[in-house]
Amino acid sequence: MKHPSSRFIVISTVVLIALVAIGVVPRLGQSAALQRAATPPIPTVKVMTASRAAAATDFTLPGNIQAIQDVPIYARADGYLKRRLVDIGDRVQQGQVLAEIDTPELDQQVAQGQAALAQAQASLAQAQSALEQARAALQHSEATMRLNGVTLARWQELKRRDLVAQQDVDNFQAASDGSRADVAAAQANIAALVASANAARANVTASEANLRRLTDLQSYQTLRAPFSGIVTVRNVDQGSLISSGRVPNAMPAFRVAQIDSLRVYVNVPQTFVSSITPGLSTDTVVRELPNRVFKASVVSTAEALDPASRTLLTEIRMQNQGGLLRPGMYADVKFHVTRTDPPFLLPSSAVIIRSGPPLVATVAPDSVVHLTPVQLGRDLGSSVEVTGGLGERDAFILAPADNLDEGARVNPVRV
């Protein structure tokens, strides 16, 4: 028979253990639950591998239509407008007279130039006549000098024989010396007259050049069209005071544009620069003629990008079919290109925009996220072109969370 105290001890121990179990077990469960709540679950994300866009593509850019030639026409002579023969919108042919200018001051200058030339020519003729007379006088002096020399030699021979007086010899010596002096003076006079004739000849040349200049200016009394085209500006009326183009801030009398063929200037983004080559076909459309497509082709490029906009200035030429297009119009130009290195095409939701360059969340084979900086091309709305930063086999998250960090671990699910 067991002792009552032993039974009490056993019962007390069992009760104590039960009480401890009742208090500890819930605490252990609560602690495990708190630990599970403190460790966030690994998010599941949808990923796909980057793929390239089609090599052949079309893109449309805005452009400005300009005339193939567009020049201002200035008057070259001052005067008054005598007659105006054309107005804005008139079609003109090359060489056609546009206006006539009355230039009374220029006409007077031409008359003065003609008189100055006649006077210079008369002075030249007079100088040449004097030169001829001087040359004849020189010949006479030289003949006299030779005669006096021979005569002197004869009288000196007679004096040696004591047949004549010394005074006679001295007289002939003086005559010989005088004739030599006359020859020297005649030669000096000829040199002076040659210089005078040369100066008169130079004066004639200058007068002729001045008269030609004035005559050429007189030819500018008629304003003519430099090429066939259309008059786009007219700033003069009959009787208007006309100033030559040499005057500062002078306005052109007319402006003529050749519009049978047109040029379009387009700024092409750097993304497509490598695809722009001379001869590339394009389609040009203006909003006012939505059902008309004007075929054109690339003629040339600037061969250098604008550092501010990173675009290439490209010139396109086309025929103005039916004369429907006008210089100054806005146009949409569609290019048909085949890219040698097409960009990757990603959903717009895959691009993360924060401070700094655009990012794409790529997932490594170990399921770790890397925020990769990329270069973007065209924004196509639901998708965007990525021109740099991604590789052929890079897997990216389709819709990354805004708070996604570099190095985060994810559970990728391919779609």
Shape: elongated
Second rung of CATH, namely the architecture of the domain at 105-219: Orthogonal Bundle
Q: What's the CATH class label of the domain at 105-219?
A: Mainly Alpha
Q: Please provide the count of β strands.
A: 21
Q: How much strand?
A: 25-35%
Per DSSP, the total helix count is: 3
pLDDT < 50 stretches: none
Determine the CATH topology of the domain at 105-219: Helix Hairpins
N-to-C order of helices and strands? HEEEEEHHEEEEEEEEEEEEEEEE
Quick synopsis:
This protein is 35% helix and 33% strand. The protein is an alpha+beta fold.
General description of the model:
Strands 1, 15, 16, 17, 20 and 21 form a six-stranded mixed β-sheet that branches. Strands 2-9-12-11-10-13 form a six-stranded antiparallel beta barrel. The protein has a four-stranded antiparallel β-sheet with strand order 6-5-3-8. Helix 2 (104-160) runs antiparallel to helix 3 (166-219). The chain is α+β, with helices and mostly antiparallel strands and 415 residues long. The model has no long low-confidence stretch (mean pLDDT 86). 19% of the residues are buried. It contains three helices and 21 strands. It starts with a helix and ends with a strand. It has helices at residues 4-38, 104-160, 166-219, and strands at 44-49, 56-73, 79-84, 91-92, 97-102, 222-224, 229-234, 241-242, 254-269, 281-285, 294-306, 311-319, 330-338, 344-347, 351-352, 359-363, 369-373, 375-379, 383-388, 395-397, 411-414.
